[in-house]
Amino acid sequence: MSYSTLISVEQLRALQQQGAPLMVFDCSYDLSDVAAGRTQYEAAHIPGARYADLNDDLSSFQPERAASAGRHPLPLREDFEATLRQWGFSNQTQAVVYDRNGCNYCGRLWWMLKWLGHDAVAVLDGGLQAWQAAGYATETGPAAPASGVGNFTARPSLVELVATETVAQNVPDGDLTLIDARGPARYRGDTEPLDPIAGHIPGAINRPFSDNLGADGHFKSADVLKAELAALLPHNAHKKNVVYCGSGVSAVGTLLAMELAGLPRPALYAGSWSAWSNTPGLPVEQG
């Protein structure tokens, strides 16, 4: 059995005990302290987990080697394919991703594996906190070296990536339903700590990624998510849904929540507000 959306800590533990082809990735991160995620990983992580760094592994800051714009540009598909092979990853591997940040960062790797056509990847529901709360052991220190080069081969993408140009072309006619996954204050334009302009893409609606989780840090049930999203999107059901955030990372949590609710998988505008607000001439809405 493979997992492609969420996996519970009990299910992950069972996979470990079965010895099935499995790789676990810790994607913990802190935008204000780029070294903090690796430090946290080395202090405690799920046994056997590898650390996947948002900047070093899941982004490309060389314009000629980037597949998107914005603050955290995606690497080219072929470059990430090479990274997976270096990690020892194969097409038969079940991937499990987690963080300790409310699924703020691990969704990036979940989406990137789907982008390379690998469906057997799941987010650990509740993250590291759920693993520890269940009483399961953690380990310390850096990751062990890969046991060998993997044979992973990219396949046709399972997700849709849209660029700034596509969003800009469709905004005037309202052909897209844009869902902004940032917090309400940044969406309204009350504050903007990272980008040069405050506000949101005209016509976008706000669904903060944190609203997808309950107080226990787990994703809300499919029924609850479906009801909440139906109240948000009833008049837009015929349009293509596109999610974005600040730099295309935390938006994946809302993308995953929509899938859990039984909605069609939305496209990701990976450049997000960081690309939009840095492109001259594009309109901005506030309030």
Architecture overview:
The protein has 287 residues and is an alpha/beta fold. The protein contains ten helices and ten strands. It has a five-stranded parallel beta sheet. Strands 6-10-9-7-8 form a five-stranded parallel beta sheet. Helix 4 (106-115) packs across helix 9. It is globular, with a radius of gyration of 18 Å. 42% of the residues are buried.
The rough form would be described as: globular
Q: What structural category characterises the helix and strand content?
A: alpha/beta
Residue-averaged pLDDT: 95
Beta content: 5-15%
Total strands: 10
The total of helices stands at: 10
Element string (H = helix, E = strand): EHEHEHEHEHEHEHEHEHEH
- Order of strands across the main sheet: 1-5-4-2-3
Stretches where pLDDT falls below 50 for ≥5 residues? Answer: none
Helix content: 25-40%
Give the C-alpha Rg: 18 Å
Instruction: For the record, give the distance between the C-alpha atoms at the N and C termini, rounded to a whole number.
Output: 46 Å
